[in-house]
Amino acid sequence: QLQLVESGGGLVQTGDSVRLSCTASGRTFSIHQVGWFRRAPGKEREFIAGIIWSHGGTVYPDHVKGRFTISRNSAEWTAYLQMNSLKPEDTAVYYCAVESTPGAGYRTWGQGTQVTVSP
How far apart are alpha carbons 42 and 114 in whole angstroms? Predict the structure, then answer.
């Protein structure tokens, strides 16, 4: 079984930066892609970044390009989400997830970490 643990959230101010971590354990060999998602209060969960584990290719939705960067440390089975120039609307619970088979969707999820951006 694959487990994911996020860390790095907290209370920050507008314009600050935060780096979130997602550490995998267990069946780590099954990781094809890691994604970061967030759920803001009263909103649906949204995809914000993805990275293909084998070669590091990344994908972002347009509204976070240039502010958010996903990366990974393969040796430590950890994915990161660097978030810069944070805004109050970035306040959300941030989750990492794993897609084990290309096209099968994200099936393994972490517990989430809260990021709150004060005005």
Answer: 15
